[in-house]
Specification:
alpha/beta; two-stranded antiparallel ribbon; 7 helices
Length: 233
């Protein structure tokens, strides 16, 4: 017989309802609904950061196994405070035919209004993802326009001394690039050898024999040569 699960969690922040108070409210709702076979799952405060919690893992395993009919919480943020995670949970519950009841929000996903809330939350999550993507792209474009480094330092270039931004904690970010003479010579030799029809292995052997090493100080290999030539196109 499918179970009704009550999920209880307290976070490290001050909460209105203790574990005992949340449990009492859930049991009262189950009594009013006339449901039975209730089990309460509880996560302690030290597991409040993400979905990686013992009781939550137990809950998800049971949902995936198809042994859960309904899940009751006193508030949606007891499941998670992350909108993306919440939408993922709601989609999982919907696929497995599990109803979600949240007492504070008067949410029951078996009702039309409950389904509306689910769709609205999903729309907000999608909007948030797109906003984050747009801000990231704008930031990268701004750095490129200023000639600042983005990501790892590309082979053939080096940071201009003093061009990095120093934060209050001493960490360094950004920085403008200039050609690194030795690495540019290596790249030029690679391109010339490739244009002459040499294989990646022959190029790697030739560089190592000529006294050149990788940035890590190791002999050249086939994959490293192939990667740099493709990246330099």
């Amino acid at each position: 017989m499918a179970q009704t699960l009550g999920y209880v969690r307290v976070s490290t922040q001050k909460q209105e309802l203790s574990v005992e108070a949340q449990t009492a409210r859930i049991r009262a709702m189950v009594l009013v609904k006339g449901w039975d076979n209730l089990e309460i799952l509880t996560d302690p405060d030290e597991w409040s950061g993400s979905l990686d919690r013992p009781a939550m893992a137990d809950l998800l395993a049971r949902v995936d196994a198809g042994t859960v009919a309904a899940i009751i919480v006193t508030k949606l943020d007891r499941l998670t405070r992350d909108l993306g995670d919440l939408c993922g949970l709601l989609k999982l519950f919907d696929r497995r035919g599990v109803s979600l009841v949240s007492l504070s929000e008067s949410l029951d996903t078996r009702s039309a209004s409950g389904l509306l809330v689910v769709h609205v939350l999903g729309a907000f999550a999608e909007y948030e993802r797109k906003q984050i993507g747009e801000r990231t792209r704008d930031g990268l474009h701004h750095k490129r326009d200023r000639g600042e480094r983005i990501g790892t330092l590309p082979f053939g270039f080096q940071l201009i001394p003093g061009s990095q931004r120093v934060e209050a904690d001493g960490s360094k970010h950004g920085g403008r690039l200039e050609p690194a003479p030795v690495e540019q010579r290596i790249l030029a030799q690679m391109r010339r050898a490739r244009a002459e029809g040499r294989t990646y292995k022959q190029i790697a052997v030739g560089l190592t024999a000529g006294g050149f090493t990788t940035r890590r100080g190791t002999p050249w290999g086939i994959h490293t040569v192939a990667h740099l030539l493709k990246a330099a196109k």
